[in-house]
Design a protein that fits this description.
180 residues, 0% strand, elongated, disordered C terminus
Length: 180
């Protein structure tokens, strides 16, 4: 969790990097509080690096949005976790399919590959499939869902995360919804 000094440093860096952002003193204080509240769940180092990346990639004279900074943080976390893109991940699966190895588990470069392969029925199911083009499309679609979930975990504020968890715990088992 970012400390106050890091949040102040981040805000000063943003304001200095975008002098044409036109923030009045009152609006600047209010806006800085909103940014601080929405970004405080990131750790100090990640917040600093995400802010620098947002500054480097932002195309307008206005301040980068909170969402842009959070997306930068998610990209950094994905890079730290050696998360391959969808096509590289499928490339690993394709090699495994054509190699014909039945030895499982395979040494995937990222655990998410195994998750997506499992969601698609497993490696043996994919080997028996007669429509590799459709399997690749389904893999890439499922990969996008996994990446989006991971991104949401990084950018979701703790208050929202807590709300979702609280609602999940209050759910009835699925069978009770089927009762007349």
């Amino acid at each position: 969790m970012a400390n106050k000094d890091t949040l102040k440093k981040m805000w000063a860096l943003l304001v200095e990097s975008f002098p044409n952002a036109k923030l009045s003193e009152d609006k600047g204080k209010t806006t800085s509080l909103v940014y601080a509240k929405q970004l405080a769940h990131l750790d100090d180092e990640l917040l600093e690096k995400a802010t620098l990346q947002a500054i480097a990639t932002h195309d307008f004279a206005s301040l980068p949005t909170i969402a842009h900074i959070l997306q930068c943080a998610a990209q950094i976390v994905a890079a730290q976790n050696n998360m391959p893109d969808a096509f590289s991940a499928w490339g690993e699966v394709y090699k495994a399919l054509t190699r014909g190895s039945t030895r499982l588990p395979l040494p995937w470069t990222h655990p998410a590959i195994e998750v997506v392969v499992g969601q698609l029925g497993g490696l043996n199911y994919l080997r028996e499939s007669d429509n590799l083009v459709a399997d690749r499309a389904r893999f890439i679609e499922a990969w996008g869902v996994i990446v989006d979930r991971g991104t949401q975990e990084v950018i979701r504020p703790p208050a929202v995360r807590g709300y979702i968890e609280g609602k999940r715990q209050g759910l009835q088992p699925a069978a009770s919804y089927l009762q007349p």
